[in-house]
Amino acid sequence: MGAERHPAPDHEVVVIGAGPGGIAAGVKLTRAGVEDFVILERADEVGGSWHENHYPGLEVDIPSLAYQYSFARNPHWSRLFASGAEVRRYHVAVARRFGLYPHLRFGTAVAAEEWDGDRHCWALRLADGGVLTARFVISAVGAFISPKLDPGIAGLDRYRGRIQRPSDWDDDYDLTGKRVAIIGTGASSVQITPAIAGKVGSLAVFQRTPVWCLPKPNPRIPRAVRWALGVPGVQAGVHGAALVAVDAVVRTMSNAPMPVVRPGLRAIDATAIRGYRGLLRLLVRDPGIRAGLAPDYGPIAKRPTLNTGYLLAFNRDNVDLVTTPIERFTEHGLRTTDGIERNFDMVVLATGYHVFSDPETYTPGLVVGCDGLDLGKYYIEHGLQAYESVSLPGLPNRWTLVGPYSWTGSGWHAFVEMTADHAVRAISEARRRSATRVAVRQDAHDAYHRRIYRNGAAMRYYLTELNAHVPTYYRNSQGDSTYIRPTGFFSARRAHHRFPFTDYDFDRRTA
Question: What is the reported pLDDT for 3?
Answer without folding.
Answer: 44
